Automatic annotation (TrEMBL):
Positions bearing the site annotation: Important for autoinhibition of adenylyltransferase activity: 40
Origin species: Solicola gregarius
MF GO annotations: ATP binding
Key word Nucleotide-binding present: yes
Positions contributing to ATP binding: 196-203
Residue stretches making up the Fido domain: 96-249
Active-site residues per Swiss-Prot or TrEMBL entry: 192
Listed name of the protein: Fic family protein
Listed InterPro entries: Fido, Fido-like_dom_sf, Fido_containing
Transferase is among the record's keywords: no
Matches recorded under PANTHER family: FIDO DOMAIN-CONTAINING PROTEIN, FIDO DOMAIN-CONTAINING PROTEIN DDB_G0283145
Length: 323
């Protein structure tokens, strides 16, 4: 992961702006809207999510609430990525501020709130407003703080995130930086500042911070739900290793699946992981490189690199015998 981040920033010019590579970011936020809402029980499949977010078409016969959840999350994610890379004039240079915390929740939850507001919410607890209810302990025993403490604790969380900016950007500190990110994410969820939508808001805020740091966003897949919840429980007890690993792997996957292929020209050398497609797995490309069938080089870090042009050439001549 260290090498991949360094390569992104030093060789590929860092993350592209949404206006420069809209197709890349749209793929990411479609996938994120699908999986992040599915973690909370949403039933839309990926194709339904894509049609809803791109075409505004609600296909299928799912509950209206599910469509509005996805629509809200998609709008919030689009806002997050735009603000992360090209913030408005009001932004003061911090990784995150309290206004953004409330904006993310408001944008994510406003559509679904119109059709299915939280049954216990008062008029003062709508999208973007802190809860004024106490929350029962979670199944694993974690008890969110009493509601009068929420505004101050949320401000403390914002202050803590900004205080870590340098260490996170430089990837230094006594704790591995993915575990620092896990601590940051878990700390927000422990405050649980809103009456509903805390998981979605927390994952969006984590991605706001990551992209501002120059890192790929994370998508926790719906199939990872048991591992993710177990890792969050471990983090509640102060063990951030499992959650840090989930976040680091998600960043690495997004980097190689979406971002690096879009930044690399046909002849630019990139890690083989960024060249995997429906025809070739990473193992197949590595074997071809090692056997000299694929034009590739191995760096001092042990990573094999090739180009899209070389892979296309390999596909054309794969069945031919070498002289």
């Amino acid at each position: 992961m260290e090498a991949a981040i360094a390569e992104l920033n030093e060789r590929l010019g860092g993350l592209p702006a949404p206006k420069e590579a809209e197709f890349v970011w749209s793929d990411i936020w479609h996938l994120e809207a699908h999986h992040s809402t599915a973690l909370e029980g949403n039933t839309l499949v990926l194709r339904e999510v894509e049609l809803l977010l791109e075409k505004g078409r609600a296909v299928g016969a799912k509950p209206l609430k599910d469509y509005m959840e996805v629509q809200g999350y998609g709008a919030a994610a689009r806002w997050v990525y735009g603000q992360a890379i090209e913030p408005g004039d009001w932004h003061n240079g911090e990784l995150v501020n309290l206004y953004e915390v409330r904006q993310v929740h408001a944008r994510a939850m406003a559509p679904v709130w119109e059709v299915a507001p939280h049954p216990e919410a008062t008029e003062r607890e709508g999208p973007g407003a802190f809860r004024e209810h106490d929350i029962h302990p979670f199944a694993a025993g974690m008890q969110p703080p009493d509601w009068p403490l929420v505004p101050a604790l949320t401000e403390n969380w914002v202050t803590s995130v900004n205080a870590r900016a340098g260490r996170l950007r430089d990837r230094v500190g006594d704790t591995p930086w993915p575990e620092q990110l896990a601590d940051l994410h878990n700390a927000f969820e422990k405050v649980h500042p809103f009456i509903d939508g805390n998981g979605r808001t927390g994952r969006l805020l984590l991605n706001l911070v990551l992209v501002r740091l120059g890192y790929p966003p994370v998508i926790v897949l719906k199939g990872q739900r048991p591992q993710y919840l177990a890792a969050m429980r471990r983090a509640d007890e102060g063990d951030y290793g499992p959650l840090g690993e989930i976040l680091a792997r998600a960043m690495y996957d997004n980097l190689n699946r979406f971002i690096v292929p879009s930044l690399a020209g046909p002849a630019r050398l990139v890690p083989l992981a960024a060249l995997v497609d429906s025809d070739f797995t990473l193992v197949a490309l590595r074997q071809a490189a090692q056997r000299g069938r694929l034009d590739a080089v191995q760096g001092s870090d042990g990573t094999w690199r090739s180009s899209r042009r070389a892979v296309q050439d390999y596909k054309l001549h794969k069945g031919e015998r070498r002289a």
